[in-house]
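Quick one - inputs below.
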Amino acid sequence: MTRTNLMAGTILASALATGAAAQTELSMWYHGAGNEVESEIINRIVGDFNESQDEWEVSLQSFPQGSYNDSVIAAALAGNLPDILDVDGPVMPNWAWSGYLQPLPIDESLIENFLPGTKGEWNGELYSIGLWDAAVAMVTRQSYLDQFDIRVPTLEEPWTLEEFDAALVKIKESGEFAYPLDLGMAWTGEWYPYAFSPFLQSFGGDIVDRETYSTAEGALNGDAAVEFGEWWQSLFERDLVPGTSQDPADRDNGFVEGKYAISWNGNWAALNILNEYGDDTLFLPAPDFGNGPVIGAASWQFGVSATSEHPEGAAAFIEFALQDEYLAAFSNGIGLIPPTESAAEMTENYKEGGPMAAFYELSESQAKLRPVTPGYVVAAKVFEKALADIANGADVQDTLDAAVDEIDADIERNQGYGH
Amino acid sequence: MSRSRLTQSNRTGWTMALPGFGLIAVFIILPFLFAFGLSFTNQRLISPNPTEWVGFDNYRQLMGVGVLTLEPERDDAGAVIRDEDGAIEYPRLRGFTRGNPDYAHLDGMREWTSWQWGEDRVVLLARDVVFMKAVVNTLTFVAVVAPVQAGLALVLALLINQRLRGINVFRTIYFMPVVVSIVVVSLLWRFIYDGNDGLLNNLLSAITFGAFEPVDWLGNPDTALPAIMAMSIWQAVGFHMVIWLAGLQTISPTLYEAAEIEGTSRWQTFRYVTWPGLRNTAVLILIVITMQAFALFAQIDVMTGGGPLDSTQTIVFQAVERGYGKQDISGGSTISVLLFLLVLTISLIQRYLTRERN
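Output:
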């Protein structure tokens, strides 16, 4: 479908180019190929934009998410980047630093009310802006908590480490569930740093030292990090959570099948759960492990490539896409969190009192960006491996030390990544 | 055909070989030369920083090893301190390998393995433990897969090299896994090996009447690599079976007739007629399997991602992981060059051991 549209767009563009009112063509890449609803929305925005004015003509090309980043890197190396591209929030500094993106020349008053996680800023400049954010929550059922006499945590008063741990043990001892908690260990890749580094941050550690961004020493292997690591390992030793060999099908369906009592999961999985459990579903904030509750922020965002000859046209398109109507469409279509309150009010799930409104509040109050540095791409990989190794029983201090060494060596090889 | 004719007057031959040679040159030889050059630089996949020449740094980083002897912790009286289980307590390794100026040559190294030496503990350190484990895993994989796969393929080839009704059905069944994409096969075997309700666990539990404890085949460091070996042997055995079969069918039937007239047993027929006739096929199969086994990647990528605890890291997986995953093209190139040297060495040794002795 996308290809047909693209071809139609190209033919249309070339036909128009020969006409009197020539529109300048802007190419655009998007990561959402394969998702029909998502394609439909983005195609609608492109179509509306092309009709709304006669200066620019955007032609869209969609890629499957799995190969999107590779395609962009290959295109950049070959000098073939499109004008407009979308980028995963934590990866943005890497592309900006590498010279793939240019600062986004849009009217900043348009995004004043946007959730902080949707604004991709690096080196003091805005490079990308998201039409949505994502959030994770402890998903469970009111009836489970009632059954085990566990307090329902609130944003103001989340679970503490002791409370959370005791609750897991209590559920485990009942023997009613395969595991009390599902962390999603089957989702290898970006899920690990996105979902689990907030735990580390709540303990007081971090993936790298955010003061200088020049080392991970102390942040990833300090006392707080070791304390986190010991607790993390104990979750697996005590069989409170499924391990790294978890079946991906169990991750997707285990909670609705009643295998797990609590699931640490994102808003994108919420619709499925709501359909099953309805009003009984609870979306709870992350526990406070000592330094406040934290969840990860930032999802996919739009930016303008550095090689674009028409940044003003690209910016015009992005500004056009920032309308509440489209923000709400993405939210209704694929369950994402709308970035403004006015757009949230237009959605079924996130309007005041809507079933997923909890995610909007989580995103607003707990969300913290992953380290904003070009080195994040490598650090995230190292962090993922360290967490998997610790889960599988590796020595906590030694594993974290090794991770620090690897991250530091990488920062050094890149001359500090421009910080 | 003499050498002079091949090189001087066989223009048509060279013209016909050109497309093949050309493709190999452009897609294999040229990239390898690039990799060789890049392994001496700090080239990144993407970076605004200029590429710098770093000499043998990448090689040193990958292959650096060291040895450290740890003496037991002693109390004031000089007695060895032991923990509750009676095991001797040693100072932590990180006191030596992290910023200790007296042991600067060990800085940044990690424990690869260790063993007891009297009261002391000898620790073998490596600068890149993951790579070292990848090398050991790959060599283990080759050492097991090459003989077992070749042997099994020969047995299958002998079985299907008979004139029986419906033998083509068996040939097809044995060959089927070869034509299925390795990625698909790996995904299917992930389900078979599943720790909770995988096919293998259910099967073993059924035939032992429930006495078998389910094993998390891919989640346990002790079983992950053997599980991948078994699956890899099964997947490619059909391919080598066909090569053996081709070899078997080149043996002249008159030899078998002569052997029969002499009254040989079946084993003697195999030992003195079949096996000598398969000599060249055996050399080919051994070298092909060895090279394929060294390239182990897809199964790892799909099934374990190198885990648990690096028990299934392999050389090629590490090359890709570093080059693309961690954007370290120079590191990935260095691993590729080392792999090339390793495979070349082993192939040359195999060639030497299996040479024609006159």
